[in-house]
Amino acid sequence: MKVSHLTKRENEIMEIFWQSNKPLSSNDICLEAPHISKNTVQAVIRKLLSMKFIEIAGLGYNKNALTREFSPCISQAEYFDNFLVRDTSYELAANFIRHAKDIETLEKIEALIQERKQALAAE
Predict the structure, then answer these.
(1) Which domains, ranges and CATH numbers included, belong to the chain?
(2) Which residues contact 14 (CB under 8 A, 6 or more apart)?
(3) Distance between CA 39 and CA 29 in Å, rounded?
(4) Each residue of 98-121: pLDDT tens digit?
């Protein structure tokens, strides 16, 4: 999937989706970012839907009305990875590992590396 750069407003709303652990309605976005008008939120949601950055996750209730809820189709890491050169991705990962402050994080990274090595060996 070809990923487009997000505008400032699109990125601001995607940040809200990425930080949430549940689907959000346009009203939820307005509550999180009261400085953005409801019309702007709805327009950006339509644009993000057309760009396939978000999808309709279901229906919810806002007071007594049914409302659509949305969830991201792309993670923040996947989004940024599309704009990094492979050498930069390596440098970021190496720098993260060098400065990791806890063993648990390093163990998770090590498990991912082992999993990927096994997948490549099986190809």
Answers:
(1) 8-76 (1.10.10.10), 85-122 (no CATH)
(2) 6, 48, 53, 54, 72, 76, 79
(3) 12
(4) 998 999 999 999 999 999 999 999
Q: Where are the alpha helices (DSSP H) in 1-123?
A: 8-19, 26-32, 38-50, 76-81, 86-98, 103-122
- Tell me which residue of 28, 66, 54, 48 sits closest to 36, measured CA to CA: 28
Alpha-carbon span 61 to 120, nearest angstrom: 45
Question: Structure tokens of 72?
Answer: 């991201």
Query: Given pLDDT bands bounded at 50, 70 and 90, which one contains residue 39?
Result: very high
**Maximum average pLDDT range among 3-12, 27-36, 95-104:** 27-36
